Structures are given as structure tokens and as C-alpha cells.
Amino acid sequence: MILECCGCGRVYFRRDYWFSEWEVVVDNPYTGQPEIEGGVETTYWPAPAQRKAPEWIGKIEKADKTLGNLLTEMYTALNSDLRVLAAIGARTAFDRSSELLQVEPTLPFAKKLDELVAIGKIGKDERGTLEILVDAGSAAAHRAWVPKAKELNTMMVIVEAFLYRAFILDDRLQKLKAAVPPK
């Protein structure tokens, strides 16, 4: 089907794919009668946006073209419902970020996290959070794990929080400090 949004006017395609083997017979909770459920997979193209990139991503793109390109690809994969690629992108964005924070790029992820703690770029709690992010990205890359939408959303929250604190917040803190009148 070709559909048009009545609100924004966006045109998109909807495909309903029916496969009888996907159907399941369940009892209706009200009548007790058996009913057929499922059997149809619906997809949209272009896929609806899953998450909008934060407005401050542009500052990171200006500071480091490689990280900017990684983030663009990560959000493109996310908004195209390419969950494995988006998860791998989140891990890769962390990897590039750690290099920009002066951590040796050849170190394994656990050592990179330890180094970030040692140089004061992250705390012990954030280390644990980032370790989960890295493991999730590795599972997508090497263990055929496909994150659910909520799991991927959690990964995006983690990577965005890390990037914001590592690259954006310091500048804003300095401006805030200068604006606060002395005692």
C-alpha cells in the first residue's frame, strides 16, 4: 500500500506479508472460543524514525569528522530499523570517543574503560554502564544478538549520555561558571 500521513503529508509504503505458518490459535478471553491470531508481518519504508539525534551532535561532527560520520551512520541504521548495525555503531562510537579522550586505541575494551577511570574521564559507576554497552555491541557483532527496540533505546541513552558528558558538558560548565556571580 502507498499511504500518506494526514498530518505531515509524508508518503510511505506499507507491506503486509501473510504466512499461514505464523498463525496461532488462541482462546478468546471473553468468549472462550478459539481464534486465529498473527500470521502477518507489517513493514514500512522508509521506516518510521526511532530516535532523533540530539541537537548537540553537530558540535561533535565539527570537532571530529570520523566520530561525526559514525554517529550519522548509527542514527541512520537506528531509524532504518537495522538494530544489529545500530548496536555495533554505538560500541564503535564509544571506541572512537575513547581514542579522542587520549586512550590507546589498540587496548582491549576492558583496559580502555580502566584507563578512562584512571584519567578521570568516567567514574566507577559509569564504567559499569559503559561495559554493558560494549558487551551489548559485541554481542550484536559477534554472537548474532538482535536487540529489541527497548534494549537498543537503552544503548542509545548510554552512548548519548557518555558523549554529552565527555564532549559537550565541559564547555557548557565553563560558560555557567563564568556567568555565576561571585560570593
Can you characterise this structure?
This protein is of the alpha+beta class and 183 residues long. The protein folds into two domains: 2-45, no CATH class; 57-179, no CATH class. The chain is 55% helix and 17% strand. It is built from six helices and three strands, in the order βββαααααα. It has helices spanning 57-63, 65-79, 83-100, 109-118, 124-142, 149-179, and strands at residues 2-4, 11-27, 34-45. Strands 1-2-3 form a three-stranded antiparallel beta sheet, with no helix packed on it. A hairpin with a 6-residue loop joins strand 1 (2-4) and strand 2. Helix 1 (57-63) runs antiparallel to helix 2. It is elongated. The mean pLDDT is 91.
